[in-house]
Predict the 3D structure of the following.
Amino acid sequence: MTPRPHASCHTDAGNQGGVSAARERRDRIIKGWSVYVNPHGLRRKARQAALALLLIALAAASLAACGGDSPTEGPTQPTRAPGNTPASTATSGATDAPASMDIPTPVSLTVSGSPSGDREVLVALYNATDGPNWRSDKNWLSDAPLEEWFGVATNANGRVTSLELDLNWLSGEIPKELGSLSNLRTLDLAKNVLSGEIPPEIGNLSSLQNLYLFDNQLSGEILKELGGISSLNRLYLHTNQLSGEIPPELGSLSGLEELYLHSNQLSGEIPKELESLDASLYTLTLRSNQLSGCIPTVLQSELIDFDQLELPLCG
């Protein structure tokens, strides 16, 4: 008896058809899987959609990392004053100064109005008058308080009120910067080797009471600006090489008590305006000059060298 074929077995034709069908199913599965794992298998629109989804995912991840806020402008650097060390990066939620707030910037140092400005003036004086060769320059150009500098006195605010450097071997010209010491009451540069003209800026010393510049080698004319220092009590300009006429503006110094002008090269007449000093003045010296004319009668008692002038009294 011929055995029957196994139920799972097929004829050759049937086997070929089944194999073909199986291969088609396999190819569809592989194709579908390749489409899933391989973007190159996607169609153009599908790729664009996938790219859009990818960008959205990246944007969401970026926002999550930044705390969820979407900046509308690029990051701005915190403004800081020059010279300050930047602080550590602020944590999220820290409050910055308003963008419209102006950070003050250091103003360049002036030569007046502050102790630091006075210090600059003194440095200028030191450099202009051969400071390294002074008889004494203790603490000058150091960081010590100004009142500890040789010959310097200050008030409670640290402003220079007195500068006494007489007989200290200063040489050269008086720097104009001294006119910025607005609190200065006494300026004593006598008995040195100072030369040149007295700078007109000295007339700006509105608090000056005592000006001692005698026994130097100063030249030029007596400053008419000195007549504007209403606080001046003592003016010692004798024993120099000052020339020209005595400025009549000195007659405006209503509080002047002592005026020493002898031993110069002054010329011209004694100005009549000096008569107005009679109420305050008690010492006046004019000898050893080249004066002419007559001596105002009201000044006779104040002229301690009256008999050395060889000038007549005014009628």
